[in-house]
Amino acid sequence: MVTTDSIRRSSARIAQMPSFALSVLWFLIHLVISIFFIVLGIADAVENYLISSGFLKRYDAINVGKLRYLAIVVDSEDAMQINKALKLLQWLTDIGVKHVCLYDSEGVLKKSKEIILERLSCAKLYEEGDEKSVLDSKTMIIEFTSQSDGKEALVRAANLLLKRLRSLGENQEEKIFTEAQMTEALKAVGSGGPEPDLLLVYGPARCHLGFPAWRLRYTEIVHMGPLDSMKYGSLLKSIYNFTLVRQNYGK
Amino acid sequence: MLPLRSSVSLEKKLLSFSRNSCPSTITQSLLFPSHGRLVQLKTAVSATGVAHREDDKGVNTGMASTWDLSEPEPLPPGLLRELMPRHVAVVMDGNARWARRRGLPASSGHEAGVQSLRELIELCVKWGIRVLTVFAFSSENWFRPKGEVDFLMGLFERVMESELQNIHRQGVQISTIGDSSKLPKSLQKLLSRAEQYTKDNSQLHMIVAISYSGRSDITQACKRIARKVKDGVICLEDIDEKLIEGELETSFSDFPSPDLLIRTSGELRLSNFLLWQLAYTELFFAQTLWPDFRKTEFVEALHSFQQRQRRYGSRNS
């Protein structure tokens, strides 16, 4: 004879079946996606190895000449690992990049520029006009920038234009405060480097951490992850992908 | 390299999720899809108080449709309210490419893009985002073919005319930034009227950047400061970053610096947009073309924002 209790127990078991089925489904999907992540990680690592080893031929003939000016943003805490920064610069020299701007907001790299230039045998410090100079195959020009070259430099440039305005007299703001004049003023205050074609961000956050805003109009920005996990293959791939980009500049 | 791109199809969605999410988030999203194109069933209470179910299309079908914002919408699974960005900026790129892929004129792409914008505004209001800045037209866009520029100016007017009441009803305040002197007079008047009409709204502040240039924004800010120095309002020694920020075109906003920038169509650059304001903004570059950027893609961008470890420099922007 079927008792009330047994009916209740059976009903409870039947009611639990949908939530049990959902739990199983959740587990299976979770498992599939976790496997997918693992496979993707392995694929990334394999691709990096193949690029670094030269097996992928398309990365052998990168038109690095298209990359006239490269900027590297490094998180200031990561920037204290000077050896990592040196390794990155050495890789860039091997790839054939000629002009590099190194940025970290606190100026850690700027303070270490003597060490960096000394350890890289073929590097020299950027001076205004260098972006137009023709360099031999091994030389790299490095510009060191920090927060003081960003918004602070714009403030100094604004002050400079204001002083020019005073010397010209009344109602000359339209002539003085133009984009061209601002660019000249930035050069005059020592923060007038060229606009990078490509900016690689090494850090946990996917932002440029205050890199000089005036110079970022049409710069391609790529987040590379923390400096600790930098890979030669990823670097080469980013530069290669940049050479394929075609910009319309809004037109 | 951590890829920054994403797209609509499930295969590519998994790829992008793998970069930006953990397995649990993806599992939740797959079990509880929240795609804007799905037909949604809604329970509504009729005038007699009897609950009934009615079919409701998830996405508006025409430019003049009433926006459905009658119920507050909970956040999609995996998103935390306390980590939502306060200010989202969007570069709406890819309309012309979207049209070209379908063998249509560029104008069709721009019109399709309007639907994406409507949905984005709706979602921002529902999810409590306070400021939305959209890059509608850059100063460089004036160099596009005249026919396309004229069409865009006409489209801005038509959309503003048809949507103003709905926008106002939902508590959206409209502001514009950029060099409005280059816009057709009729559009200038309409935008001014829209700003005046919605100025007391507080649900969402939508800033439309039209004929805008980031460099020009900075230059004009410095010019305004120069006038204040000339008029004796401030001293030369007082000029600092805060003063320049206070004169930028976005300074009227409660949150002038975006927390999250989304750019569609796979391009990885700022294109002279909000240069000063984006110093510490999280950048999300989506592979999707703007007319295809819908709720799913926006949720993905928000997921990525919330999961990314955000670190500022020692001095905030």
Structural category of chain B: alpha/beta
| Helix percentage of chain B | 25-40%
CATH class of the largest domain in chain B: Alpha Beta
Which superfamily, in CATH terms, is the homologous superfamily of the largest domain in chain A?
Answer: Decaprenyl diphosphate synthase-like
Pathway (chain B): Protein modification; protein glycosylation
Organism (chain B): Trapa natans
Keywords (chain B): Transferase
Cofactor (chain B): Mg(2+)
Explain this structure to me?
Chain B: Its cofactor is Mg(2+). Chain B: Belongs to the UPP synthase family. The complex is a heterodimer of chains A (251) and B (317). By secondary structure, chain A is α/β, with parallel strands linked by helices. Chain A has two domains: 1-55; 64-243, Undecaprenyl pyrophosphate synthetase, CATH 3.40.1180.10. Chain A has nine helices and six strands. In chain A, strands 3-4-2-1-5-6 form a six-stranded parallel sheet. In chain A, helix 1 packs across helix 9 (232-243) and helix 6 (151-168) crosses helix 8. The longest helix of chain A is centred in the first third of the chain and has 50 residues, at 4-53. The model of chain A has no long low-confidence stretch (mean pLDDT 86). Chain B is α/β, with parallel strands linked by helices and 317 residues long. Chain B folds into two domains: 10-74, no CATH class; 87-306, Decaprenyl diphosphate synthase-like (Undecaprenyl pyrophosphate synthetase), CATH 3.40.1180.10. In chain B, 38% of the residues lie in helices and 15% in strands. Chain B contains nine helices and eight strands. In chain B, a hairpin with a 5-residue loop joins strand 1 and strand 2. In chain B, helix 3 packs across helix 4 (106-126) and helix 4 (106-126) runs parallel beside helix 5. The two termini of chain B are 27 Å apart. The interface between A and B is large, with 65 and 60 residues.
